[in-house]
Amino acid sequence: MTTANETFLVVGLGNPGPSYAATRHNIGQMVLDHVAAQTGGRFKAARRAPAVVIEGRMGPPGAGARTILAKSTGFMNTSGGPVSALASFYGVDPEHVIVVHDEVDLPFGTLRLKRGGGEGGHNGLRDITKALGTKEYLRVRVGVGRPPGRQDTADHVLAPFRPAERKELDLVIDEAGDALELLVLEGLTAAQQTVHSREAR
């Protein structure tokens, strides 16, 4: 269970600009935009990092945790610098960094929570691991599925969602936001039990 004096840095991965906004690679930022809309928060330029942030709390008043929502204003493969700078500025240890990102190794809409592990060819995760000097940060993995046929993985994640996927996208983003809140408020094990058992049904 999270205590009220803990601080989490929650990073939604993506690329900048309108041409990338609706692509699979940007689903991490879509989740943070959804959470921000629910809480009424507005992103503002971060100090000492090329990013935008919302400083707030997640959970009921007087409980939960101080939470910094962050989106880099640079490209995916340079995510590490902003994440490291923000973690340092806000005094957040790597174990309290949460990265929300697209995951091609999970079917579309599947959610998985974990700490550490490999990057699976994800350039954003690879750069964050390098910058933080550890893999032991938390991840909210949002499934976007494997590329069809012989399509290149990079082309797949940089393409918009298919029409059938777009019909389900709002629900997926909403559930990812709920999973993120559970992770912050209840801790990894309890959140995994809830989110992963829901997926298994």
UniProtKB/TrEMBL annotation:
According to UniProt, where does the site described as Discriminates between blocked and unblocked aminoacyl-tRNA lie?
Answer: 15
Q: What Enzyme Commission number(s) appear in the record? A: 3.1.1.29
Q: Give the active-site positions.
A: 25 (proton acceptor)
Regions crossing the membrane: none
Positions in coiled-coil regions: none
Q: Where does tRNA bind?
A: 20, 75, 77, 123
Keyword Hydrolase set for record: yes
Per UniProt, subcellular location reads as: Cytoplasm
According to UniProt, where does the site described as Stabilizes the basic form of H active site to accept a proton lie?
102
What would you give as a GO molecular function for this chain, any one? peptidyl-tRNA hydrolase activity
Q: Which UniProt keywords apply?
A: Cytoplasm, Hydrolase, RNA-binding, tRNA-binding
Can you state which reaction this protein catalyses? an N-acyl-L-alpha-aminoacyl-tRNA + H2O = an N-acyl-L-amino acid + a tRNA + H(+)
Q: Which InterPro entries did the record assign?
A: Pept_tRNA_hydro (IPR001328), Pept_tRNA_hydro_CS (IPR018171), Pept_tRNA_hydro_sf (IPR036416)
Give one Pfam family: Pept_tRNA_hydro
Would you say which domain of life the source belongs to? Bacteria
What family does the database annotate?
Belongs to the PTH family.
Q: What is the recorded function of this protein according to its Swiss-Prot or TrEMBL entry? A: Hydrolyzes ribosome-free peptidyl-tRNAs (with 1 or more amino acids incorporated), which drop off the ribosome during protein synthesis, or as a result of ribosome stalling.
User: Quaternary state and partners of this protein?
Assistant: Monomer.
The identity of this protein, by name, is Peptidyl-tRNA hydrolase
Native source organism of the sequence: Brachybacterium halotolerans
